[in-house]
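*** Protein under study ***
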Amino acid sequence: MAGGPLMIPLAILGLMIYLVLGELFLHLLANSYFRNDPNEYGHWVDRPEEAKGKLGEIIRYSQEGCRTTSDVRLRFAEIREATIPPVQRRIVFANILLGAAPLTGLLGTVMGMLKTFLSLSVATGGNTIDFVAGGISEALITTQTGLVFAIPGYVAVTFLKKQMNEIDHFFTQLEILTAIKFERQNKEKSQPAA
């Protein structure tokens, strides 16, 4: 097999990397409520019944039973805790797999070079070139395969981290708007009627 015995573990690693990344992309795509128009957030915070889908659920949950801005902050802390850590855990796992791919390729390089040096020591005549070429080929193919899996994976993880930061920013915007709404309502209640 071209690339040597480490091609099977590399193939399994590559499959796992792209399964994890694909699942993350699908998860974020299914929860793309944070991509709505930021100009509408205030409207939805003031009229939560008009917000639809997951966004509506979040806005209604952040307001139901809340009386103070402290209650709102606690609700958004719960929302963040339920949303962001699962994505972070998947990204950490993807990073571990992505780190293992080039290292496995490097191990293949070492094994290929050892095979090359061994063939230099035992081969004679015209066979030497064939053995050396086979060892170098094995070394380069495993390194290349590890990098082919890792480089696009790192690009994907960078994109996913950006998406996770956008979700956190979205929650911060909603939290601020909701806190302002509750402060405004509390001021109106505390002012004496004219």
User: Anything to note?
Assistant: Residues 127-190 form the longest helix (64 residues). Helices lie at 7-30, 41-46, 53-63, 69-122, 127-190. The chain has a mean pLDDT of 87. The chain has one domain: 7-187.
